[in-house]
Amino acid sequence: MKLRRLATREAGFEAELAGLTRGAALQDPAVQESVRAILADVRLRGDEAVLEYTRKFDRIDARSLAELEVPKEKLQAALEALPLREARERILEFHQRQLQSSWDYTDAEGTRLGQRVGALDRVGIYVPGGKAAYPSSVLMNALPAKVAGVRELVMVSPAPQPLVLAAAALAQVDRVIGIGGAQAIGALAYGTRSVPRVDKIVGPGNVYVAEAKRQVFGQVGIDMVAGPSEILVISDGRTPADWLAMDLFSQAEHDEQAQALLISPEREHLDAVEKAIHRLLGEMPRRKVIAASLEARGGLIETRDLEEACALANRIAPEHLELSVEDPQAWLPRLKHAGAIFLGRWSSEAIGDYCAGPNHVLPTAGSARFASPLGVYDFQKRSSVIDVSQAAAARLGKLAAVLAEGEGLSAHARSAQMRFK
Cβ neighbours of residue 167 under 8 Å, at least 6 residues apart? Predict the structure, then answer.
């Protein structure tokens, strides 16, 4: 495996960095067309189409979706055998602090203005299934929704494993249906005879699931269209090389398109980490995936100093950013764009993924420049409240009429004027 080495002072660095950090999962026309056809079929034929695609893609033969719904007794039985409660409590404690409340105020003329904050009615959660088991994804998506007050959570997952069922029981998911792929996204977005239409769909999936979420957006809300996993580590050269090699592995093992970058001003430190990578790789069960990821999108980047390292991290805007330096608090103000920031040598990204408390559903592909981690606020919506007093209707009505006439909207102007003329 050949690992890419870059240095900011070398000619051609900008072009190399652009090639390295360019989005890996560009929209594939073939995927788009396939998903479009599946969604249209689900919208037209409902349950029958979902069952047909489930047989075709997931190799699960069922006569009805009722056969694929997991009874709550089975969820509870799975929970009794597994230790997930501490993770749940930490995730709940963090997200309860995000809960927003309604507010209002009254101005001097007696007009009351404010905002009503309320929860979404029904949310769909997609959880990858089959051979994989992602109980952490269940907790991270379901618990903030429950804190927000969502009335009903409908989870879809193809052939969900016991760990996933246990997490669903712990998070008080209302329904679990054993379907997946673009057809499951379509069922949630449009509703079928057996699957209720939801207001928002959240959760990770493969390229077909991501594309389906992109295409149904507008019919329903979505959390984000997530790309491959990312980690960027800034090191001052004093963190053990083996620790950092394993931190890079922790994201590279997700899939071949994941990205793992280490930035440091210390060339000898970068050398040591590269040696650790080659030495430790053979021990990893997913070494082929890790090697492919590191070779395609991994990199060790030498900067002039830590200040330049922070500036470079802001340009990349990674999903996960580890600040592995002696005094991380001193450098934190320089970091503006990242999904999650891990401070100090003891804060591994892996702990954040599972049980630290903050959400692990994070913006990828540079979208941390404008997007945020999944949170309680994603399951709440806001309505403005406007209660104009009679005294204010005349003064504000005149102002509204002037603006409306200026825009050529005479009915707007007259609507305001009628209340004081």
Answer: 84, 135, 136, 138, 139, 142
Residue numbers annotated as active site:
319-320
Distance CA 148, CA 138 (A): 16
Q: Strands 259-264 and 230-235: what pairing? A: parallel
Q: pLDDT by residue (tens digit) across 179-233?
A: 999 999 999 999 999 999 999 999 999 999 999 999 999 999 999 988 899 999 9
pLDDT of residue 105: 97
pTM of the shown model: 0.93
Alpha carbon distance 47, 294 (integer Å): 42
SS3 state at 283? coil
Beta pairing class for 152-156 and 259-264: unpaired
Give the per-residue pLDDT at 330.
97
- Residue 180 C-alpha from the chain's centroid: 18
Q: What is the CA radius of gyration of the chain?
A: 25
CA pseudo-torsion sign 333, 335, 338, 343: negative
How far is C-alpha 353 from the chain's CA centre?
Answer: 12
